[in-house]
User: Fold these one by one.
Assistant:
Number 1:
Amino acid sequence: MSRTHHLQLPLDADAVRELAVGDMVMLSGDITISIGLPTHKRMVSELKAGNALPLDLHGGAFFHLSSYIRDTDAGPEALYMNPSTSTRYNPYMPDLIRLLGLRLVGGKGGLDMASVAAMKESGCAFLSFLGGGAPLLSEAIRGVVSTHWNEYISQFRLTTLRVEDLGPATVAIDAHGNSIYDDLKKKAEDKLPGILSELARQRQAASNP
């Protein structure tokens, strides 16, 4: 039976390993977001060169969420958050998960098996955020903590936001390697022979009125 977890960031590996596929999560604390492919490539390059990133992401939460930050008299303001498709970042995520010891990653669409292996090693889970859920997700924003690599467009920057009850998000890949996407694929594969058989029957019926 799935559970709902109200989690306070940062998390340790033990807390993440308690999450199971299908569980729901509400997050409070600081998260870092970016949807920039150049940003991901740069992060990996810097880390492999032995250079520190401009913020400490070790053991943190890094999500593929888009946001636009505008400057106001009261300081920077995040106008929205909206999930992006995480599979675009498959080439970079295994290194980022391992090198940063990330505890939570997320977006839409999951990650590949290389990333899942890194998640099992590091104690990391993938959270699936509601596609098109920007109004709901944006309600959780409580402030902009920092932005880095500001030469990029707003959505590509390394932006850290403070959130309260961000979610609900679904644990789509847990730290034990279980994946909701594998379950869906298996169910689809199991149904495929029946679907093909029915289509063949319909074609046969149409050709013999």
Number 2:
Amino acid sequence: MASLMEDKVGIVTAAGSGIGRASALAFATEGAKVVVSDINEQLGQETVRLIKESGGEASFVFCNVAKEEQVVRLVQQTLELYGRLDWAHNNAGIGAPSKPVVETNSADWDRCLQVNTTGLYYCLKHEIAAMLESGGGAIVNTASTSGLLGSENLAAYSASKWAVNGLTKSVALEYAKKGIRVNSICPGMTLTPAVEAWKKEVPEQAAYVENDIPLGRMGKPEDQANAAVWLCSDKAAYITGVNLAVDGGQTAK
């Protein structure tokens, strides 16, 4: 039986750790050729090594998605390496300091929106251009449950993730008839390295948050990765423009 993504070529941004690394590994496990992208070459190369050790195929390309010329190069190098682009997981994103909006720094706002929203715009623009040449494709963007609900003291981050979900829907409508599907995943609290560190720093607070999740646990990066792979696969062929909460039921409350 063929794997879900057999011989399909794609990109995962911010694939050096956390959800991005889990996604790159999951796509490779399902037979995809994976271009691993990150601003940390050491971590990105480690993801490539893990994929190759498990029998998969992967290459590393450095890219800061906040710089359009680097996104152009990422897509071009993918085409040079593998000749086509069939899917992408636009996972790159950053947080911002947690403060009431009056106390926030405008530079933090600008940086968060530049990476999370404008960077996604660059990725969509150039990935879709390549996919049109390849005859179609599928894209998953990493948003957040903060892009579905209000998030106190996270104005910049929440605004950027609402924008991710809005971009997802708008671009999905633009290219649906051209064979390109665009969806987003909206992770709830997920055990990335940053969250793991937070759990150790404030275990009582982390326990309270975890107990409030209907499924009774925080998400694993693999939970998000599996959703991304499925949305990019032909199993989700009739799904586009969806902002999928992968949050253990949190936003159902």
Number 3:
Amino acid sequence: MRVLITGLPLFVKKIEKDLNEFDSKNKYIALNTYYSFFDKLRFFILLPFSQMVISFNGVTDNSGTLNWAIFLKKKIIMQWMGTDSVIARKQASLDKIERKYIDNSFHFVDSPWLKEEVESLGLQIHYIRFKYGRELEPVKSYKESCVLTYIPESRQDFYGLKKIIEAAKAFPEITFKVVGMKTPEIPVPENVVLLGWLNSKEMETELRNSPIMLRMTEHDGFSVSVIEALSVGAEVIWTHPAEGVFYVKDQLEMMEALTRAFQELKKKK
């Protein structure tokens, strides 16, 4: 059986490699149908000779690739991400949701809160505690007390820039490293270091040098950066409940969690 995998290359290329190693009886092909014209062409050529499409997104707006998958009656599996749920519920509230994709697919989520949200769309959801992450060796000791977070250049407020700034002001002696962005929409304190986009190896280096991961998003799936931070032994402060993290609901709880995290670091030194 041939299976086509669509989504962002960062994830689908890794999944393609692992699935082909795990399941040698079937052939898995990852295609960047978002940004690669060549991969879009390959998708349309291969689709008639494939039996399944795995989408690493919950798709609820118009999709040329999935239109053809439905027309040719292919099985479709959707792995929902956090942003997918936000978009889908907003479209549903405006009565603009494209239901033909989700009504003709099998659906998976990687966190219990996403299961509850996506089920509100009237779908049967399978919750599987699965997310792709690298195998990272635990860090035995940290050289400095610093905080790492991820905020992309777009949607800075959604990813918690204002909360990071308040935390940096409250702990001026601590360096707050921000991955993903270079140009803040509002001024940041001197102890906030903007690292911009990092490749996989550079990100691993920052994870291994950062004893605290702070993720203050308005909404999330099961974040890969959280998983990787936990795997190296960092203290993780997050706005979503999960095993092994400091779960915080607001800015006050964030400050309290940071204080506790710094205290835990002192015990380990």
